Task: structure prediction
Amino acid sequence: NAEYFFFKQWYQRRVRGAFWQQVRCLSTYGKLTDHILSSIGDIVGPHNVTTSESARNLHGTDESFHPTQAPDAVVTPLNTAHVSEIMRLCHLERIPVIPFGTGTGFEGGVGAMYGGLSLALHKMTEIVEVNSCDFDATVRAGVTRHQLNDWIRADGLHFPIDPGAGASVCGMCSTSASGTNAVRYGTMRENVLNLEVVLADGTVLHTAGEGRRPKKTSAGYNLTNLFVGSEGTLGVITQATVRLHGIPEATAAAISSFESIQNAVDAVVEILQCGLPMARIEFLNSDMIAACNGFSGLDLTEAPTLFLEFIGSPAGVEEQAMLAEELCVGNGGENFAWATEHSEREKLWKARHNCWYAVKAQHPGKHAYSTDVVVPISHLPDTIVHCHELAADMDVPLPIVGHVGDGNFHCFLLSDQGCPEEVIKIKDFSRALALRAQSVGGSCTGEHGIGLGKRELLIKEVGPGAMSTMILLKKSLDPKLIMNPGKVIALDHLE
Result:
């Protein structure tokens, strides 16, 4: 059948041609000469171009286990015009370009596989406009979610997409990030109204029309969501217009431990079925709770645990918490406690956001990697049980944290980068878990993206028809294949 032949051709290209493919690409991409760097320096200023080893290594590394792949140079534009001129020059000379936000990704998306330049966007920090009455804001590529929230807090507004890291808003667009608030506010796909994108040849595109910010539209193709999640492979996102939301009048946080994972997930399903307007529902297994206790100074029962957050009026929040307690206790929940005090809530959610660092602190010197599967909620318990079985077979510790309101969870895996056997073990675990998620109707990634590590899994997930369409889109928008080459779609698929 068509899928079999597609995979057969892919396998043959991967196994037999990967080495020579890289040789061909390196020989066909242009060399970043001193003359070209001087021309780029004329555009952005010489002080915004560097070839220092430390800067190059920094911009070839993210939070993944993939080894550093340093670019040949790091360039820091100050505005969209700079980006456009740089892209026009790189397109002419066929120089690879890798957009770089804050480097908080988990899938090797910033590595310079074929050299070229890293386009560091952190100096583009203008908050262009905030329309508080219309609940939207427009920001440049270097603005982080923390900076945006600090700016709009006085207007009673917030930008709720919360991946837990100090990510830039445009970087979050690039990977279609989400986080702990997704059960209430959705992901970046639901919260982006318009994007300014510089294409590979330097053309500046506004996906919904320049200056437009409608809350809904049915005008033409949805170009905005074409670029949300494109991971820098179709263009450079230089500006985003995003939805804002009102800060709730009252907020409460709650916690409950359970005897089993099944009981915890059953409680979540009943809470959602009751229509409670949850802001967050997070699951932590006993290994993760142990890590949080040690790192954040908590004294929680080391058992499967739910962290919950309610928002609304003071009376409404109290009513929600009481109903949630009843549902949790009905499913075997214990030690249910809730609080409205800001300090108590912050302590709880700070511990949740520090899970990554808590796990790393338990194993000094080890390198951590986070999986990122999403499954239908009905399959969440058996998938997590399957994780524990895999971990037992491979003899690896398994802290788990999950956004159980939408079926997305992460296993934090640790390895010694100097030990190839451990790295292989981690990769095998991640692949097996992703295949399991796909087998029950889920996805290999809920919010981290494909990057370098999940290209093979993408093929299996979307099938030959969708994959062929993605290839056509990539080759149409980036015919010289200079935009973050090798990510999402391997170059041997594009020849």
About this structure: The longest strand covers residues 236-243. The chain has a mean pLDDT of 91.
